[in-house]
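Project outcomes to date are best conveyed with an example. Our students and postdoctoral researchers have been running inverse folding experiments weekly, and each run begins with a structure described purely in tokens. The record below, which covers 113 residues, was selected by the lab manager from last quarter's runs and is presented without edits.
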């Protein structure tokens, strides 16, 4: 069955960096666009970044442009989110999503001094 397993979250100081990973299995990863979403307490889940199946095109929500980079390694069935210059408002649970309609369990990112 389809599985998405996120990792890489944690506690980081403002201005710091984290790299999230999402390992996918149970489907032909290279055929599907992938996304990262996040949800902060009391807020709706929001799209953070998208990447096409080949990695040739990406999308970022305005609040993370220039700070976050989405990438993928189709040989490893993994999508990444490099997050730099983190801000307290980036604190959220981050989820991996495939256009097949499946979500990962999430990984917590907390940005605090």
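After processing, the design step wrote out the following sequence:
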């Amino acid at each position: 069955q389809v599985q998405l397993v996120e990792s890489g979250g944690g506690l980081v100081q403002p201005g710091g960096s984290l790299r999230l990973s999402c390992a996918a299995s149970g489907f032909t990863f290279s055929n599907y666009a992938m996304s990262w979403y996040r949800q902060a307490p009391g807020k709706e889940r929001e799209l953070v970044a998208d990447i096409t199946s080949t990695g040739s095109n990406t999308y970022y929500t305005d609040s993370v442009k220039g700070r976050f980079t989405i990438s993928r390694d189709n040989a490893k069935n993994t999508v990444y989110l490099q997050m730099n210059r983190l801000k307290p408002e980036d604190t959220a649970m981050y989820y991996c999503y495939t256009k097949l309609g499946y979500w990962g369990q999430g990984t917590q990112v907390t940005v605090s001094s």
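The mean pLDDT is 97. The first strand starts at residue 3 and ends at 7. The training component of this project remains on track.
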